[in-house]
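Q: What structure does this chain adopt?
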Amino acid sequence: MAAVLTWAALLAGAAGCTGDGTGGIGFGGLGGPPAPEDVIRISPDDGSRGVRPGEKLRIRVPSGRLESVRVVRSQDAQESPVPGRISADGLRWEPADDRLALAAEYTVDVVALDGHGRRSARHARFTTHVPQERFVGYVTPENRATVGTGMIVSLEFNRKIEHRAAVERAVRVTAEPDVEIRPHWFGRERLDFRPEHYWKPGTEVTVDLRLRDVEGAPGVYGLQHKTFSFTVGRSQVSVVDAAAHTMEVRRDGSLLATVPITAGAPKTTTYNGKMVVTEMLEVTRMNGATVGFKKRDGKGEYDIPDVPHAMRLTDSGTFLHGNYWAPADIFGQTNVSHGCVGLRDVKGGGPDTPAGWFFDRSLIGDVVEVVHSKDRKVAPDNGLGGWNMDWKVWKAGSAVK
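A:
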């Protein structure tokens, strides 16, 4: 058995913030960071759907400077960086090509300093216009990706599918070595595929989309005709024990490390169940108002502009992330978060902290399972939570009878 790592040395030292006495986390000397939209302006707006070709992608700051800008276009299950440049004065970023692609999803990650030298981060997504009477499926994971053994193939359609059986027949997911893979519909806009158990490491998975000219709804036809594939990497499953305040990280079945954590406070508990890492961000902003944690004045109960080593576990906002603002002695001892799983970190994100160590050893598609939390089990359609559904029930979700 691999030696269990200990983090006693890393837990020493003061942290940036203290508990507020209510189960949440106070901000001490953070001084109320400005709202993200006041620091970083992104157009089209985050969450926009059906953005027209005539609209321009623009990123700017009214003062300060842009530090880094990363724009990625996802189209037909292929991810491509969008070239562009930051202006000489640091206030603007513009793409090399002004035209937005049709039927594409754009992801924008920006880090900037405001006029007072405070660092802030914004993460935004929008989708562009799909020609009339067409539908597309946005596919997870990306083509040629290497993923963890818990990855679920997921298609999200840009409009409701009425002829689900016809669309399901037009999507074929196969694996080498061969394994039974079955589909499950969540409503009329999402179709997921998985095997009964986690993928075996080294499996090559191929997805054939034959949606072009398939009628998904009366008079509405598919646009895509594409084959892509991904590789399953090593197995890593981490079990978070919310009651014991620990996370056991197992690589290919062997214990790699036991890491002290903090989970959801008694009034804001963490979901139980199996969750899959769907997004990894070295730094991101977290505002409680965006996930329903608001004060009476409408502002978020927390607003942290530079959360390090953030790994998304659910669509509803559950992350496993670095925490530099809580006292060091809470990790392994007390649950104080608003539902996320926190690992000890330092401001700016340290590679030798528990959070940095785990981030550097993780893949999109890795499984994080939470046990012994006083909350319900995560819903199967919240992120890639399909592993929480019984195999018989999963298979019953097919539209092809």
